[in-house]
Write a structure and sequence with these properties.
Helix 1 packs antiparallel against helix 2 and helix 4 crosses helix 7. The protein starts with a helix and ends with a helix. The chain is elongated. The N terminus is likely disordered. The strands form four sheets. The protein has a five-stranded mixed sheet with strand order 5-4-3-8-9, with helices on both faces. A hairpin with a 5-residue loop joins strand 1 and strand 2. The chain has two domains: 30 residues; 185 residues, Glutaredoxin, CATH 3.40.30.10. It is of the alpha+beta class and 281 residues long.
């Protein structure tokens, strides 16, 4: 979090100092503040992408009831989508969250409701209490299945933001921050970043699909059955409809390939047995 932000917060409670002294101290802090204490989109994107491969700490936060919970639940091993928001945001965070909710619903249709988890974490620690997070989720009609809204301490937000490569700075209108959803694999490492308030559905679904199918080295789980693997492999994104659909043509290709392989194996085994018989005569 920016040094100037911490400095300003410290001064907020020092009401016994003369007004001119406070203004002078704030002015000095502004001059001495590092150039990086401002939001820069290019730098923010660089930091976000550089976080891929980071291990996310197993932090303790609070859910909407005020109960302490682990960021990565007991069912660790599933992918986790992390979205950082602040509840007093009037436009960007609500729109980002609603779009993410639509994408999550589509991903759950493809991969299964219990194939991954989602958390939204409030980074404005003074405002984003459990009650505020609950009200935000209810106000924007976010489904509860596999999705938790969490509050955290200032230190936890600072450490978690660093792990995720999430950059935010206080501004006159609230906060300037990068719009990203982070996909964490089953081992707690940042696997992919999804950027933008609005993004194409495959940007979220394909990395999750990789993890569920077990394609990367850090995969969390393999599909339980051959049928599940075929269903996931044969579900593709249709740009015309904007939905993931089951591709019958790909199924036929798989079946045809399997029949061909079996035919070749049958022919080779048959030839081997015939040659053995002829050699035994």
């Amino acid at each position: 979090m920016p040094a100037l932000f911490f400095f300003a917060r410290g001064l907020h409670g020092m009401r016994t100092l003369p007004r001119m002294t406070l203004l002078a101290l704030i002015g000095c802090a502004a001059v001495l503040a590092d150039e990086t204490d401002r939001y820069d989109a290019v730098r923010a994107l660089h930091i976000s992408l550089a976080a891929v491969g980071n291990t996310v700490g197993d932090y303790t936060l609070k859910d909407t009831t005020g109960a302490e919970v682990d960021l990565r639940p007991a069912s660790a091993g599933r992918p986790l989508v992390v979205s950082m928001i602040y509840t007093s945001c009037q436009k960007v965070c609500p729109e980002t969250t609603r779009h993410l909710a639509d994408a999550v619903a589509s991903a759950q249709q493809v991969l299964g409701e219990d194939s991954f988890d989602v958390v939204s974490v409030g980074f404005d620690t003074e405002i984003d209490t459990p009650e505020a997070m609950a009200a935000f989720a209810q106000r924007h009609d976010i489904p509860k299945t596999g999705w938790r809204f969490l509050s955290a301490s200032e230190e936890t937000v600072r450490q978690l933001s660093a792990d995720l490569g999430f950059i935010f700075f206080p501004s006159e209108t609230g906060f300037d921050h990068i719009n990203q959803s982070t996909i964490v694999d089953g081992e707690g490492k940042v696997y992919a970043q999804v950027h933008g308030v609005y993004f194409d559905l495959p940007a979220l679904v394909e990395p999750l699909k990789d993890l569920v199918l077990g394609r990367p080295a850090t995969a969390s789980r393999m599909p339980a059955s051959v049928t599940e693997r075929v269903r996931l492999f044969c579900t593709i994104y249709n740009r015309e409809t904007g939905r993931y659909e089951f591709d019958d043509a790909r199924v036929l290709q798989i079946v045809a390939a399997a029949i061909f392989v079996l035919a070749v194996v049958f022919f080779l085994v048959r030839e081997f047995l015939l040659s053995r018989r002829q050699a035994g005569r």
